[in-house]
Amino acid sequence: MRKVRLRLLFFISTIIFSGCASASLLNASTVEYPFTKPNVSVGAKASSLSGCFVAIADDVSAIYWNPAGLSQIKSLEIYTVILNNTYWESTHNQLNFFGLSFPTKYGIIGIGSYSPIDYYTHLTVIATDENGIATGTFECNDEAINRNYTLADSINLFPFWTVGFAMNYINQSRNEMIGTYYNKSQSGAGSSFNIGTIIRLGKIFDIGYNYRAPYTINWVRTVLRDGKIYSYDGYENIPLIQSAAFSLHSPAKKFFLSVDIEQQNWSNYKEIKGQGTDEGNYWLAGERMNALFKDENPVRVGLGFNIFDGFALRAGLATGADFDNMCSLGCSLFLSKCLNLELAYSFTNTFGESKSFVAGIKYDFQTGL
After folding, report:
1. Model-wide pTM > 0.70
2. Which of 14, 163, 192, 311 has the smallest CB count inside 10 Å?
3. What CATH number is associated with residue 124?
4. Which domain range does residue 179 map to?
5. Which residues, listed in sequence order, are joined to residue 153 by a DSSP beta bridge?
């Protein structure tokens, strides 16, 4: 009991410290609608389940989905995930996740970097005159990247109850180019935090919850348009996002069914113009806009089957948000006792047809030694 109290005291003090840090370091950048919303799943296993991972969270990507899940990792583990994302017929590769976790006397610590926002579009446009006759071509690029750096901790308060906390440093940027006519860049950095818990009711039923606190992000934007340079700043209020989930599995975990329900309070979103020169008086100083965001409650369902020792199949479906429907398939293959390969394919119509292929490698040092 004394050990539990010490761990709980450490956990609470970490939350208080990080909350103060978030209040004083709410400086980040973001990009205009719709690029403040996550559009890809973090981690290969979570991707194969269409993001239905809050009540499972059994690998290092738990630092994003539910930090309480780190408690299921009993040794040093390294996890790397590569994303091949196709958005509006433009394809590029990106480091989706890299992280490690390890046990300490203060709980299971997770450290990682990941990108839940990944938009990239490259188009070649045919220019025409007033008569519709082609006069040439020009290139268009639009890229939005959100890179998070996270430190998380998970502790077992009781054998059936785990809590976790994550502190996130955020680096977001967007670059947009339309030939030589228009060029926009935006960048910044900031912090946020999330809290999660998992309650295990017997050997076959788990309940998970993850709370992402609302926060403010500040941005600086520079625009080159018609040979003129405009620069201005502003800030956005990113609202609360929380998820409740359950996972039902067989005693030997040969099969599982998981369901997530997420609440996204985007009607509270506000983007506010600060000061500086404006892009053709696009905004008035102090003007607010909610960018047509509405509250959303996406539902995600995930299934998993261990076909035989060393090989598992998974599938997921998500609906009820901007992506309308997301379908995913994936598998897990144990290449050795310590090395695990995760593969996932997802298809969605998020802001236009999008599909992604994800490959992850996980190495467990305890079984590898």
Report:
1. yes
2. 311
3. 2.40.160.60
4. 2-368
5. 109, 165
